Amino acid sequence: MAHEPDDPQAPPEPAGRTGPAGRAGPAEREFVRFAYRYAYRIRLVVVCSCAVLAVPAMPADRMAIASVISCVVLGWSVLHYRLGMAGTRPGPLLAADMAVLTGLCLTQELTIPDSQSMYGSTWLLVVVSIVAVGYQMMYPAGLALAMALLLSVVDLAGAMLDRPDGWDYAVPNVSWLLVQSLLAQGLYRLVLRASRAADAVGTQAAAARRRHEVAQAQHSAEREHLATLHDTACATMLMVSAHGQSLRPEILRTQAAKDLRRLASERATSGETDVAQELFAETGDHRLVVRAEFDGSLGLIWRPAVEALRGSLGEALRNVARHAGVNSATVTARREGDTVTVVVSDDGTGFDVTRVPPHCQGLARSVVERMAAVGGRATVDSRPGHGTAVRLEWPHV
Hints:
This protein is α+β, with helices and mostly antiparallel strands. It contains 11 helices and 7 strands.
């Protein structure tokens, strides 16, 4: 089954930073990704700058060892950035990061010149601060604050080892590091809450818009049905009433038969029908091996919507047979509240949805437009080598 297409410049969403799976809205996801990227990039710039500028400040007899430590910090900073942006598992990456930072904090006597007698003016404090603040945007709140506390303890221990008689100068600065972390976490959660509120407003507006579209589709279908009745049965009855007994029976029979054929060929525009029954019938009309996973509570919905779902399902399965290079597909259908969702997925070759030739618009025209006509929605998710998933949604009004 295909996954949502990824922005090549965007890392995966950090675990624990968004709401429940599948529930985070676009504003929330975008903010989390932005904060994640920002934390990694600003850390890379600040840490590398501090490591480079620290070497010239060291006395000549300690410049060699300081240069080695600076190279280690630079190398790890670049590697940490690349691994983080590539979506490496957060556990091992965080453990390795803490190991490097612990070593850096405990070797302050090798990296901080004696001229910086006050701890608050050292480059190491800047590095530890930006790392602790960055953690608040990279990891879940509890873990991020715990790591900030651990960094503070390790940093204070390093200050004690470097200046056994003057380490008390470091206490206020280390305490401020914790305050910075709490403020960063509070600001992050404040913006996150605003993002979720924006998503909620957007969801409500989209639902209202879709209800309006469904109502318009229903009214349009009803008008077409009434027009057909006017042009067939009503017109025939008017002809009978106008001509009375002078109307020849064979003419009436011919006209009535034509009216009946037209009414029978018109799709019903009122009433409801069983969703699962129609969808299951459609899966049996294809040569593919179709694995159907239907929720038992699909129930009844507006007939044109069921026909749109069935027609879109059929077109999606035909596309699998024609283009996916596989002989099987999976169809899942469920109902959550007032929304029926059908997903057609395969493990085939997939394709780039942004590079579909103009002459290959079957999904766009036969699926997306068909669902939109009844107030529904269809999305196509595919990547080369990762299969395709066609998602159909119709809100029950």
